Amino acid sequence: MQNMLTLIANLFRLGNASKNMGAQAVSELLIGLSEYVDLTSPPAPATPRQPPTPPGTRMVVSTRSFADFTPQANFPIKKCELHHLDEGPSDSAVLTREQGLQYYRTMQTVRRMELKADQLYKQKIIRGFCHLYDGQEACAMGIEAGINPTDHLITAYRAHGYTFTRGVPVREILAELTGRRGGVAKGKGGSMHMYTKNFYGGNGIVGAQVPLGAGVALACQYRGNNQVCVTLYGDGAANQGQIYEAFNMAALWKLPCIFICENNKFGMGTSVERASACTDYYKRGDYIPGIKVDGMDVLCVREAIKFAADHCRAGKGPIVMELETYRYHGHSMSDPGVSYRTREEIQEVRTKNDPITMLKERMLSNNMSSVEEIKAIDLEIRTVIEDAAQYAISDPEPPLDELCNHIFANDAPMEVRGTNPWVKLKSIS
Amino acid sequence: MASLRCFLRSGKNAVSLVLRREFSKSSPVSVQVNVRDALNQALDEELERDERVFLLGEEVAQYDGAYKVSRGLWKKYGDKRIIDTPITEMGFAGIAVGAAFAGLRPICEFMTWNFSMQAIDQVINSAAKTYYMSAGQQAVPIVFRGPNGSSAGVAAQHSQCFAAWYGHCPGLKVLSPWNSEDARGLLKAAIRDDNPVVFLENELMYGVPFELSEEVLHKDFVIPIGKAKVERQGTHITLVSHSRCVGFCLDAAAVLAKEGIECEVVNLRTIRPLDVETIEASVMKTGHMVTVEGGWPQYGVGAEICARIMEGPAFNYLDAPAVRVTGVDIPMPYAKILEDHSVPQIKDVIFSVKKVLNM
Q1: pLDDT beyond 70 at A258
Q2: Which residue ranges does the record assign to the Dehydrogenase E1 component domain (chain A) (predicted)?
């Protein structure tokens, strides 16, 4: 016991010590510590000693699970309000340590990526439109946690978070924002037009993505592949006529479409009360069942989307979900976001309702992680984001001979008129 | 032949077998097929060929099509492949584009192209631009089709020609068939193309029969997109046209031939990409050009053709300014006498030809 305490004390001292301490010494201490601990969880897989890292590097705590962490816990979650449904999602959620770390890592990455984009925009390295997602991370993470990679997703222009959760690396997202050739759309799409497998953007026209999503769901039904399409829109878009056209056809034909309204209380500068005669967005599907979900709680979102996906896969038709969430930034980078709401309101959400903080506190208070581990993850993420930003700044712009490419798919090369009749440009598929 | 059996089975149409007598035993068979049936056969064959192809639109299934173009298809292919939609163009056009995103090959029918204005955002912003915005990741293999331009007595809101509107946009292919061969070959090409295609039919042409050769009736007959056809050889003047007006040009050419004026008639077939080479080659031969279209003059198809001729090598061969024959620059009136004077007639083409030739 005495030895264990000494070891723990040394460990804490190390955390505060200078960078001179070699990583190997740390590993030795940690391995020593583990020998003293009562094994309550399944034995950790045998990991070899970490090779010594070059001097001067930051120490990275090994990611093998420490035996004294709780492997999983059951959390009560907010009960969802229901519309035309007898039963709803579960009111408790099981979170494993692995999942918790994964969700934390993902949400924190999105958070830091968006803040980095903010920085780059203010430095005028990103231009045009930039709609940031910080505050809403639990929506993107919760949804991805509740569906399969083979399911489909489409959203509007506040899309960076989903672009990441659907599999595009941070560097390709940032490089797309800075308009470089290494961007996910080779610099030709920009903030609102990023695509990857089973992710259909990124759409700039408010509401247009909703019929598109219903169409993807039609394709799933047509093929009988048991997949669903998650179709997102905001509280501002929720009054668009084409959304009701999509609702009608989705219900009529029982399309496996999960319509999700991310209600962040403001459509640009207009509060929901000033835009909608009815602000119960989960009820706006009328004949379509609806669920109102706490969008700041990643577990709540996950359980709700699982429920919704099961509903669709069972052939019961579409379902509407409203995720109550909040964006810290204004509508876009050209909107400071404080003319239509108070700084106090924003601060209150940050302190009382931040999705990442809530998850972290849940994990820490249930001994599913430690402050050090979280800190280490944060450090890692910071490195990833820094590297990605470096890449996004230093990667060259697309070459001019790319200008006219990708007009048509699978076509012979063709000529495109330039700005004057003597300029004939080449276009290849 | 399967296709022969196919349309002999379907309802009433003008079918007459014309056997050309030849010395050899094997006699090539050509058949009279109207534009409606040509479209119907093309749809049927492409639905059969690729099970990702499906048709959606108002009244396309159980009603057999508002203009009967999809007659018999629902009975043959069922609810999954032939889908009746509610009257919600923006919604179902968006659904069609989304299905194309996910790898199906939808044919989205607009009852007339006038109604496409309700859905034009989906055609342009969701369909046409996506391949470019995604740098080649997301193709959109969709065909939008329906009758375009003036009809008979349907007044202003139902008579607009959209060739110039859609022809303006990069990322779209825009087709405008005239006769049955065009309709058949271009629709098949459009369905097989991996890009968004705007297919502009003409209601007044649906019932008009044309002779189709065996080659054209073959199930893999396609017309290359982006290639115009010289329908009639001539030496004195080039008439460039698309859709129904091609017929007027040929009629005008027949009248003018009696006076010794030989017109070369170019059928555009494709509005975008425009086959400038064929037009230029013709103008360089004849030295004179008149474009003929049903749409309005300002910023129209004829305006584009004239601009291109100005900018290219053919200008030096022009002996007179190129002119346009178009619809009158007004919303379409209802009364027959007014309507008749709102669209180009054969006499307008003849008049313009003589003016350009300074006769």
Answers
A1: yes
A2: 106-399
What are B's interface residues with A at a Cβ cutoff of 8 A?
Answer: 54, 80, 83, 85-86, 88, 90-104, 121-122, 125-126, 130-141, 170-171, 173, 194-195, 273, 311-312
Contacts of A154 in chain B (CB under 8 A): 98
Going by their DSSP bridges, the two strands B17-19 and A81-83 should be labelled as: unpaired
Sorted by sequence, the CB contacts under 8 Å of residue A421 that are 6+ apart come out as B311, B312
pTM attached to this predicted model: 0.88
Which residues, in sequence order, are CB contacts of A113 under 8 Å at separation 6+? A160, A164, A170, A173, A174, A385, A388
Tell me the C-alpha distance between A193 and B130, whole Å: 8
Distance from CA of B129 to the nearest CA of A (A): 8
Contact A208 B121 (CB under 8 A): yes
Of A187, A218, A252, the CB nearest to B99: A218
Angle of helix A355-365 versus helix A371-394 axis, rounded to 10? 150
Asked whether the beta carbons of A101 and A375 are under 8 A apart, the reply is no
ipTM of this complex prediction, to 2 decimal places:
0.91
Structure tokens at A383: 């490195």
Q: What is the 3-state secondary structure (H, E, C) of chain A?
A: CHHHHHHHHHHHHHHHCCCCCCHHHHHHHHHHHHCCCCCCCCCCCCCCCCCCCCCCCCCCCCCCCCCCCCCEEEEECCCCEEECCCCCCCCEEEEEHHHHHHHHHHHHHHHHHHHHHHHHHHCCCCCCCCCCCCCCHHHHHHHHHHCCCCCEEECCCCCHHHHHHCCCCHHHHHHHHCCCCCCCCCCCCCCCCCCECCECCCCCCCCCHHHHHHHHHHHHHHHCCCCCEEEEEECCHHHCHHHHHHHHHHHHHCCCEEEEEEECCEECCEEHHHHCCCCCHHHCCCCCCEEEEECCCHHHHHHHHHHHHHHHHCCCCCEEEEEECCCCCCCCCCCCCCCCCCHHHHHHHHHHCCHHHHHHHHHHHCCCCCHHHHHHHHHHHHHHHHHHHHHHHHCCCCCHHHCCCCCCCCCCCEEEECCCCCCEEEECC
Contact in structure between A109 and A322 (CB atoms under 8 Å): no
Q: Give the model confidence (pLDDT) of B255-312 as tens digits.
A: 999 999 999 999 999 999 999 999 999 999 999 999 999 999 999 999 999 999 999 9
DSSP character at residue B334: S
Q: Mind listing the pLDDT tens digit for each residue in B65-117?
A: 999 999 999 999 999 999 999 999 999 999 999 999 999 999 999 999 999 99
- If one compares A251 and A31, the residue with the highest pLDDT of the two is A251
Assign B341 a pLDDT band (cuts: 50, 70, 90). Answer: very high
- Whether residue A251 contacts residue B88, with contact meaning beta carbons closer than 8 Å, is answered with no
| Residue among A189, A405, A421 whose CB faces B133 most closely | A189
